[in-house]
Amino acid sequence: MSKGIGMHNATLDTQLNMKIPVQCEKTGIQGFVFIKDVQALPLTLDNWLEFSNSNDLKIKIHGIVAGKPDWDTKFPPVGQGFKLGFSVDSTLKNSCFTLVKGGWVPIFYAFSKGNIIADRNLVSEIQARFSNGEMSSGTMPNDFLDYICDKSCSCTLHTLSYALESNERKIPSADKIIDQHRAALKTLSKALPHVKTWPESDSDLEHFLALADTFREYFSQGMRLLIKLAPLVINSPARNRRVDRWKAMAQIARAENIPVSHIVFLACLSATSAEQGFNPAQKLIKPKAIYTEEDAYNSMYDLFLIMLTNVLQTQAPELKVTLVTRDKNLAFFWMGLTFADPSSPGQQMIGLHQKLLPVSESELKELAGILGEGRVNPSWTVPPLLKY
To answer: Structure pTM?
Structure first.
């Protein structure tokens, strides 16, 4: 079946809607089933790997039947919810990754009442692509991001990422955050005046600044750890040397008084272990022999965005907070992480997909000794055949 996807003004709120063509088997008459409140179920790293092999992106959605022909018997009655699976047309590019709790979805699913954290690159792209709510002259439509200029789009763009990025190699001061938030707000309002933004009020801004404060020490720890560990992840150690490398890394972290549960340590673990053909952690860290504070800041900022997004998603699940990025390595690393609640910086358990950390049973036992027994789940599925 072909599908129509559209945004339109509903009576009370803007929603993502779909219309699905149907045909009466008896008479041959054609009609449409209209679906409202469409939401996509998160896709996983496994889904991405399947898609990259087949170019067939399978989506599962749930929604509510808003209208249908009287003769239709395939869909539930009007007002009832149901789930549906279909493939996205491969001619539509999906180069923006929308990172949601549990995985990712194509960006257009965040346009209906979603809260989008747009990274600095995406803010710049929005500025270049749109003006006063319209596509800029000379701009060719090319992917799902173009849907954001639809006047009935009900998403909220967050200035968080833009406001928190710094040339000071740390989370900036409150005054600098406010200045950068205002700059991002001016840019977004000029490009897409119909799209809501956050923070919106002074109290929103105070909440934002308080949240940034909770991450300052965690961010600083991550930078210190990256400077120490990055030279150790330039090359993956031989299989029989991996455990020794992990122990050396853990010893460095403890000497720095930084917990081995820190996302930087987990990223370094992954960087020393994943296959070179698929090693997003290593590409995020960009290791080299002389690793500067600027290098550490750039990599820590990506890892910090992951933690910040997870905290916001956990604190307010009803807000549908997403991080939208074109950085494939950031997206792949996110897809391979599983966060357990409660979620405060450095406290939650984080699971790693076996593609990010392919380990044997004996290595898993060693990891339990390094990370702490309570932080390793021995029931993780171990790959049946390890190829290196």
So the answer is: 0.82
What tens-digit pLDDT sequence spans the chain (388 residues)? 223 333 232 222 334 566 778 888 888 888 888 877 777 778 888 888 887 777 677 777 777 888 888 888 888 888 888 777 766 655 445 577 889 888 888 777 777 788 899 888 888 889 988 989 888 876 666 566 777 877 777 888 999 898 998 878 889 899 999 999 999 999 999 999 988 998 888 888 898 899 899 999 999 999 999 999 999 999 888 888 999 999 999 999 999 999 998 999 999 999 999 988 899 999 999 999 999 999 999 999 999 999 999 888 888 777 888 998 888 899 999 999 888 765 555 556 788 888 898 888 888 888 888 888 767 765 544 434 332 2
Cα dihedral: 367, 369, 373, 375 (round 10): -40
Type of residue at 140: M
9 occurs within a structural domain: yes
Using only the alpha carbons of the chain, give its radius of gyration. Answer: 23
Q: How far apart are the first and last CA of the chain?
A: 43
In a domain, residue 100? The reply is no
Measured at the CA of 302, the angle between CA 297 and CA 304, to 5 degrees, comes to 85
Helix (H, G, I), strand (E, B) or coil at 357: coil
CB-based contacts of 115: which residues, under 8 Å, 6+ apart?
Answer: 155, 156, 158, 198, 312, 319, 320, 321, 322
- CA dist 221 and 241 (Å) reads 27
Determine the Cα–Cα distance for residues 39 and 17; give it in Å rounded to an integer.
9
User: Which residue range forms the structural domain that includes residue 41?
Assistant: 1-91
- The first and second tokens of residue 299, run together, are 């990599």
Structural contact between residues 334 and 266, judged by C-beta atoms closer than 8 angstroms: no
Inter-CA distances, 148 with 141, 192, 274, Å: 12, 8, 36
Total tally of structural domains belonging to the chain: 1
DSSP string covering 23-84:
E-TTT--EEEEEEEEEEEPPB-HHHHHHHHHH--EEEEEEEEEEE--TT--SSPPTT-EEEE
Helix (H/G/I), strand (E/B), else coil: 310:
helix
- 47 in a domain, yes or no? yes
357 within some domain: no
Task: Characterize 286-316 residue by residue with b for buried, 16 or more Cβ atoms within 10 angstroms of its Cβ, and e for exposed.
Answer: ebeeebeeebbbbbbbbbbbbbbbbbbbbee
